[in-house]
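Good morning N.,

You mentioned wanting to compare the apo and holo forms, so I went ahead and generated the holo version with FE2/S2 (inorganic) cluster. This is what I fed in:
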Amino acid sequence: MRIADLPRYELQPEEVKRIDEIIKKYKGKKGALIPILQKIQKDIGFIPVEAQRKVAKMLGIPEKDVYGVSTFYSFFSMIPRGRNNIRACLGTACFVKGGKKIVDRIIKELGIEPGQTTADREYSLQVNRCFGACGLAPIIVINDKLYQKVNPEEVIGIIYSCKK
Amino acid sequence: MPKINSTDKAAKEVKEKEAVKIAGSSNTKIKIYINNKAIYTSPDKSILEACLENNIFIPHLCFDPRLKPQGTCRLCIVEVEGIPEAVASCVTNVREGMKIKTNTPHINELVRINLELIISDHPLDCMTCESCSNCALQDLAYIYDVKDVTYKGKIHEKKVLEDNPFIFRDNEKCILCGRCVRMCDNVVGASAIGYAGRGFECEIIPAFEQSLKNTDCVFCSNCISTCPAGALQPKPYIGKARIWEVKKIQTVCPYCGVGCVIDLHIKNNKIVNVSSEIGKHVNRGNLCAKGKFGLDFVSSSERISYPMIKTKEGKLKKVSWGKALDIVSDKLAAIKKKYGSDSIAILSSAKCTNEENFLMSKFARAVVGTNNIDHCARLCHASTVTGLIQTFGSGAMTNSVEDIKHSDVVIIIGSNTTETHPVIGYEIIRCVQEYGLKIIVIDPRNIPITRYATIHLKQKPGTDIAIILGIMKIIYDKGLYNEEFIDSRAEDFDKFSKCFSAYTAEKVAEISGVDKQSLIEAAKIYGSAKNALIFYAMGITQHTCGTDNVIALADLAMMTGNIGRKGAGVNPLRGQNNVQGACDMGALPDMLSGYQGVENDNIRLEFENKWGKPLPSRKGLTVTEIIEGASSGSIKAIYVMGENLMLSDPDILHVAEALEKLELFVVQDIFLTETGEFADVILPGACFAEKEGTFTNTDRRVQRVRKAVNAPGSALEDWKIICILSNKMGYSMNYNNTAEIMDEIASLTPIYGGINYERLERRALQWPCRKYGDPGTSILHTKNFTRGKGRFIPVKYTPPAEVVNEKYPYILTTGRILHQFHTMTMTGKVKGLNEIAPSNLVQINTDDAKNLGIKNRDRVKVESRRGAVTALSLVNSKIKKGVVFMPFHYADSPANVLTNPALDPEAKIPEFKVCAVSLKKI
Ligand code: SF4
Ligand code: SF4
Ligand code: SF4
Ligand code: FES
Ligand code: FES
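and this is what came out, ligand included:
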């Protein structure tokens, strides 16, 4: 991944507010960096570069130390989610029932790989291993809503129909 | 096993010098066995260090004597009896009786595997690599014969970063030893780069992969010099030469007073790279951007390469040396005849060598017959000389750079150390992180080093004395003074002690605007330190009360007994490469070389005997008085060597008027400067890289300057020009080489008495070095002060000559920035430096800017009672409210149009650091 390839993202005012609150809450505590980043990841969905700069500044530590931590742990992501987050399943059951075809179809339509977000930030795509709904396989989850027994022909229609 | 390389030797020597280190260590030696051989070493050494100093080869990649060892590469492993696994020798200290085995088959096998692992993910393109033949990794691969990579692992596509003018990073070649990161964090203190990603993805990179230009990187190049592989390269020098094609000439950096020893890499009469021996010399191999990248000026096409005279039409015309010097000698003789010797003045140069300054002094006194000789030290450290000579008897740094690590507190007052003396800044920052050194910064701005400060007192410019008096009062009241020292080593304490009694913390806080509690805290920290150093520079000296500022610091140090020991003293940081030497050599109106007063008949007699001429006995004029004289008509001729008065002097509009009036103005320089524009005759000099000689750095270290390239055209070494001119004027001055001049210096200058080129060839010598065999002096005043007893002198706070009013409501303070130097005669020719620091910025406090409607990078007019300039604004809260800062480097926006020429009554130094200005957005 190259930072330069990331879509440009400007923090929304409410996100700025949220980040400030989070940093304030942990500031001064020992080992504050990781919990702060975790909380930002949870609340904003990813850890924007701008947020990391803010964290560095407010904690008075070099930016490279924040960046070092945010890139070290795989549960931190610097890629913003789209307004609509698509999670496709490639667990055993879904895979066997054609999950791969579904994922390929989405990739082709949206022009992004798993883990990426479209340039207009409308859609992001993730691939998971089993949601525990194998009986309904193959499934996809869009914005926390589950779609069952999806077939590759329908999937694009589903995606566009549930656009927020 | 093969011979050890130069880094190892360097490491050895450093460690030898550092044998007596921080607390707890002692001189006692312990006995260890390496490969069954008994060896004596000191207990604070690591096994690796002990082996290297005994020429026992141990492979290593992540060790650098400048850095705290970290033990990441695991190549330095050895077997130690009683320990089952191999141990990393760089992070394991020796113990009495320890039995160590190196290079055993087992160890060698492990090292091999390790090297194979490293090389399996390394591009094997030594043939085109910049570092070929200058690469520790390549050497080890050769030694261990690692060529076939057994682990055909994934080779990662790593990043190449080069979006900055100086540092080229190719992470494909990075072996992740972490040396560059440790260098940047722990020595330079910039923390510009770090690890990102994990496992195979791990790379060293600036945060967010941004350009180094957007980080705190200062382009010091020390990450490059520590990299054991070829991952980091000096961008401007890439592709210029292979290492085996160059001749390395060791000399001294021509910029600041730190006096870093540098190796110029020469190919075809050109400088193609600069390096410095690791772990050696005052800078231990560290450099700053100016020393590493700032030498393009040497081969600049703008160099003056032939003598010139000004025609009647005011145009410059090329002439022969004979013609130019005839004009100078004839005119000087005529002016001398008509108006007397004292109508002529000489300005010598802190950029030129000791030998040249000495000859200039001889020329002024013996040939012209005047004591009107001075140089730019007047504008920076004249008050240091007057202040410290009265209190201690010697006006120089009392300690050495190596001393910092022995100290537990340093006060940094009026010195933006990391920008003006970068390499001393690194040492302070390193000691903060490695030994817990505490820093008290007293400065109106959040200068970069405040990041490492325990306390920052952010005062109003010009209120330093009040603060120092306040600190003394607190120390006195709390009983933190050193009675024994005061009684046995100093005098006049009783008379003195009244001077601070009125300066209560409240009062001082009110005068200076610093926080009262922090003031008390600072006093306690300094007062209770075991060993404390004071570092100061122009923020102290460039005031109308400059001499008193210096005296106050000397008083403070004596009162607490912080002088004359390792890690305890008072240290003026000298700005120019050879400003110390120019003073030492007597380029001063009141002193002959070695601070011997011209008014002293016995001293004069000695010089007269040697020089065979009666010498003038009355003190001469200072720089500022010379300009005054030119303006009033009493000075008719000025001969200036290597100084640019037109940017460095205060109130330069006035200087211009004065120069216009001269009957003869001779300028000897390497470039046609703003000052040169006024010259009647221009004589092309040779720059530092084109001549032999010596410079004396800020800690009194006399170091050899060596010729590396030829001067352009017919330009000549300054000492030769002086000799020819002198001979033309009927006084014979003949030297075969500069070594002979040094011998004459030694014979007339007691503090240089033991210095000659033969000794300097082996090592630098710190004066006083009185006779052959004298090892030199790294710490002054250890038993007695130079003047016998230290003298306490009372001082009082006087406000600056110019205070703010309604019309000029802001205080302007001036200074330097890291990536330019002085009047930019040299740095102005370096493309990369100008990319980093392209234009003048006036720093304004955020609140002030808001009130004035000024945004960052708005164009602003700054006006004082003397003139106005415009500059772009730099708005931040790093500067105190009510204060603005401007560097004086830029000719298109010269800060010294604004500054106040008001003088310190004793030292005659102008008050560059305070004047009242108004600000307006335009
Ligand atoms: S040049 Fe100096 S400041 Fe910049 S990254 Fe290298 S070590 Fe750090
Ligand atoms: S760039 Fe050089 S010094 Fe830095 S980690 Fe890589 S190999 Fe080591
Ligand atoms: S610190 Fe001073 S002497 Fe050293 S390289 Fe930089 S400018 Fe030159
Ligand atoms: S495999 Fe897809 S839900 Fe279990
Ligand atoms: S030199 Fe000791 S581990 Fe690298």
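The first helix of chain B runs from residue 6 to 17.

Happy to go through it together on a call whenever suits you.

Best,
F.
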